[in-house]
Amino acid sequence: MIRIEFNKLRFLVIDDNAHMRRIVRTLLHGYGTREVYEAEDGASGLEAFTAYQPDIVITDWAMPIFDGIELASMIRQPGSNQNPYVPIIMLTGHSEKSRVIRARDSGVTEFLCKPISAKALYQRILSVVVNPRPFIKTKTYFGPDRRRGTSAHMGPERRKDGGGAAEITKIEPLYDKIKSGLRGS
């Protein structure tokens, strides 16, 4: 099992439910995180994102002012903030396939259904830290590679061995930040 030194990571938790923020914060502190920032809606979440420059954003879907999908889209705008590559973990009580696809298409990195478990949250964080997905930039999308399986995309912007209409960017900032803290056991 790979362990992460969470004390080297900054998290931003955005949820309009104070109880849910407390649960996530408690789990993160339990993993060893020292820096957990919080916001209660999409607008204050975007402000906190700019102010604290978190390494990982954990956001709810349904929030006032603007929701987690709108927030993810704003964060993913290249050039509009200091880190459009930040991993975004979406929390929601809705697990319909259409919602998962919509979150993926807005640039969400990982999806986690409520109620959450300590193990499931840890696995999502481990995934974004140890195995960051490359980022794709096309005319209509900027975000983590949406393909997880081996099925080939057959659309007009289909990538061909890294070429084609899509620009692919490999990222490893979180792994580099904490790689001295990664160890197998």
SSE order: EEHEHEHEHEHEEEHE
Largest sheet: 5 strands, parallel
Mean pLDDT: 84
> How many DSSP E strands?
10
- Tell me the name of the CATH class: Alpha Beta
Put simply, the count of helices is 6
**What is the 3D shape?**
globular
Proper CATH architecture: 3-Layer(aba) Sandwich
Radius of gyration over all CA atoms, rounded: 16 Å
Class from helix and strand fractions: alpha/beta
Q: What is the distance, rounded to the nearest whole angstrom, between the alpha carbons of the first and last residues?
A: 5 Å
The low-confidence runs, each spanning 5 or more residues with pLDDT under 50, are 180-185
Going by CATH, the homologous superfamily would be Response regulator
Helix content: 25-40%
Our count of domains comes out at: 1
Strand order of the largest sheet: 3-2-4-5-6
Percentage beta strand: 15-25%
CATH topology: Rossmann fold
Task: Report on this structure.
The chain is α/β, with parallel strands linked by helices. It has a single domain (2-132, 174-184), classed as Response regulator (Rossmann fold). The protein is 33% helix and 20% strand. It contains 6 helices and 10 strands, in the order E-E-H-E-H-E-H-E-H-E-H-E-E-E-H-E. It has helices at residues 18-31, 42-52, 68-75, 97-105, 118-130, 173-178, and strands spanning 2-3, 10-14, 35-39, 56-60, 88-92, 110-113, 135-137, 142-144, 167-169, 183-184. Strand 2, helix 1 (18-31) and strand 3 (35-39) form a beta-alpha-beta unit. Helix 2 runs parallel beside helix 3. The longest helix has 14 residues, at 18-31. It starts with a strand and ends with a strand. The modification 4-aspartylphosphate is found at residue 60. It comes from Agaricicola taiwanensis. Residues 146-168 are annotated as: Disordered.
